[in-house]
Amino acid sequence: MSKKFITHEIESNGKFKRQKNRFTAPFGAEEGNLPVEAGRYRLVWSPACPWAHRSVIVRSLLGLEDAISLGTLDPVRPDVERTDWAFTLDENEEDPVLKIKYLSEAYLKADPDYKGRFTVPAVVDLTTGKVVNNDYFNLTRYWEVEWKKYHKPGAPDLYPEELRAEIDELNQILFHEINNGVYKAGFARSQEAYEEAYHLVFHRLDWLEERLGQSRYLFGDKITESDIRLYVTLVRFDVAYYNGFLLNRNLISDFPNLWGYVRDLYSQSGFGDTTDFQAIKKHYHLCAVSSNPYGIVPKGPDFSIWKIPHGRDRIKF
């Protein structure tokens, strides 16, 4: 996301205020909901984007790959006068299923008057070629609850009923202070707005560091929806947010518990195998950082450190 494209999301005091999602119809059996049908939808993502990444992690953990196909966008935005994403990684630079070159085509087919940024994740209905959902905040919960009949045998319960109220409460905190908090710092247009976001993020990271000293994951010894939401920000922090978004008080690798925790998740199927550090570095340093006129992508860090044994499985409750 180039900063030149987000002026409408900057308030008069220099604070970044993220745009609302346009396509928020839920999945489900009720009238007006999107029907839950295997093979009907295509999830479009970029491995650079944390909001999209978490929907792909959940899709993998639950075994929904055969029910929901996946289209992948280039992490580097196309040189066009809009906030678009392009299918330049595919043959003929078009999605092989949707037969489009830009994500905007599916958005504008759904709403020709759409004026916002073209965001991922985006769920496209293959019967119409239109985007029907770009509600990143709720999409993973639809995969977990409404798509349960398509889960693989033995799939984890990422949103257990007895914890839903606590998970929802923590997810709100993670969104405002971590997931979107890093963007509040990185896209701030005043020193005051930047420092407020800076302190917000590190205050919550300190809190999470303490919490994760008491349990392997955020809610005990089982991975939940909240862990996935935290993971996608932590895994991008040292390679993108620390320097690109000026969140330079500490690296995640400076926090013993957070560093072990994110390596624990990274080592597991669905997490590490969907994490593309090169795509992350390219996107943030070429598209999201304004002070990089020569288009230089950082060479490091040494990613072998992600395979250092984490020891989190030894935590007692």
UniProtKB/TrEMBL annotation:
The record marks Y241, Y284 as: Lowers pKa of active site Cys. One of its GO terms (molecular function) is glutathione transferase activity. Gene3D superfamilies: 1.20.1050.10, Glutaredoxin. Glutathione binds at W85, R117, F118, T119, V120. Residues 160-284 form the GST C-terminal domain. Pfam families: GST_C_2, GST_N_2. The active site is at C49, Y183. GO terms for cellular component: cytoplasm. PANTHER family: GLUTATHIONE S-TRANSFERASE OMEGA-LIKE 1-RELATED, GLUTATHIONYL-HYDROQUINONE REDUCTASE. This is Glutathione S-transferase C-terminal domain-containing protein.
